[in-house]
Design goal:
Blueprint: H1 6-29, E1 33-35, E2 41-43
């Protein structure tokens, strides 16, 4: 009768555990996409500002709701 190879089985369990841990780490690094109550997809932008000053140049638009000054 053949005996079980316990070292092989243990190594396979360890590899599975490592694979699961790697998958979990990858999922944590990916940007999250959530769904709100209406079923709409909410994408959270995780882009970093390249110059590092914390300002978003794309959002620096003059407000259009202000009335024109009578000059």
């Amino acid at each position: 009768m053949a005996r079980n190879n316990f070292q092989y089985e243990k190594r396979q369990r360890e590899l599975d555990k490592k694979r699961k841990a790697d998958d979990k780490a990858k999922r944590k690094l990916e940007p999250k996409n959530d769904v709100d109550a209406d079923g709409n997809l909410i994408v959270q932008d995780s882009s970093n500002d390249s110059d590092g000053d914390g300002s978003n140049d794309s959002e620096a638009v003059a407000p259009a709701a202000l009335p024109a000054s009578p000059a």
